[in-house]
TrEMBL record, chains A, B:
Family matches, as SUPFAM superfamilies: Sigma3 and sigma4 domains of RNA polymerase sigma factors
UniProt GO molecular function: DNA binding
Xref: Gene3D superfamilies: Winged helix-like DNA-binding domain superfamily/Winged helix DNA-binding domain (1.10.10.10)
Family to which the UniProt record says this protein belongs: Belongs to the UPF0122 family.
Protein name: UPF0122 protein M3202_03645
C-alpha cells in the first residue's frame, strides 16, 4: 500500500472530475499544497471541523470510486507491464516475445 | 461517432459499477439482451414509460461519466496506438522507434 498522502494525490488525479468544486478546493489545498486544516478553515471562514469532515468524506468517496472503477490499480498494472516491455526490448527480445507482451497489455483494459 | 447501441454497450462496460442494480438490470436487458421496453416493463411489473425514463436517465448518466472520466475515449486511443506498435514490429521497425511509440502510449494515461 502506498503512503496515504501519495495515494490520495493519485486517487485525486484520477477522480477529481467526479468531486464538487468545494471538495476539489479543500483536497488540493490539503494534499497538493500542504495547507493545514486550520489554514483552510481560516481561508474559507468555516470551522476546522467542517473542513476535516469534508476532507474525510472526500477521501472515502475517492476510495469508493477506486473500489468500483480501479483506475489507479489498472494504471499501475499497465505501467509495470510497459516497463517490462521496454526492458525486454533493451535486452533484445524477439518480435514474438514483444508481441505477446503487447497482447497482455491490451488484455489489461 | 459510433452507432448508438454499440456506444451504449461500451459505456455500460466502463461505468456499470457506478449504476444502481435496477439501472444495470434494465440496461443489460435492453442493450445487451435486446429486450423491448414492453418486455422489460412486463417482467418487472412496471409501466413501459417507467422503463423508458429509467433507461434515458441512465444513458445520460453514462454520457456524463464519459465527459468527466473519458475512459472510452482513452481506451480507444490506447487501442489505436497499440495496433500501430504491433504493425511497426511486423514491419521490422527499429527498437528506438518502438521505444518512442511505447513512450507515447505511457503518456496517454
Amino acid at each position: 500500500m502506498l503512503d496515504k498522502t501519495l495515494r490520495m494525490n493519485l486517487l485525486y488525479d484520477f477522480y477529481q472530475s467526479l468531486l464538487t468544486q468545494k471538495q476539489r478546493k479543500y483536497m488540493s489545498l490539503y494534499y497538493l499544497d500542504d495547507f493545514s486544516l486550520g489554514e483552510i478553515a481560516e481561508a474559507f471562514e468555516v470551522s476546522r471541523q467542517a473542513v476535516y469532515d469534508n476532507i474525510k468524506r472526500t477521501e472515502a468517496m475517492l476510495e469508493e470510486y477506486e473500489a468500483k472503477l480501479m483506475l489507479l490499480a489498472k494504471f499501475e498494472q499497465r505501467t509495470e507491464l510497459l516497463t517490462q516491455i521496454k526492458e525486454a526490448i533493451e535486452s533484445n527480445a524477439t518480435p514474438e516475445e514483444i508481441m505477446s507482451m503487447l497482447d497482455s497489455l491490451e488484455k489489461l483494459d
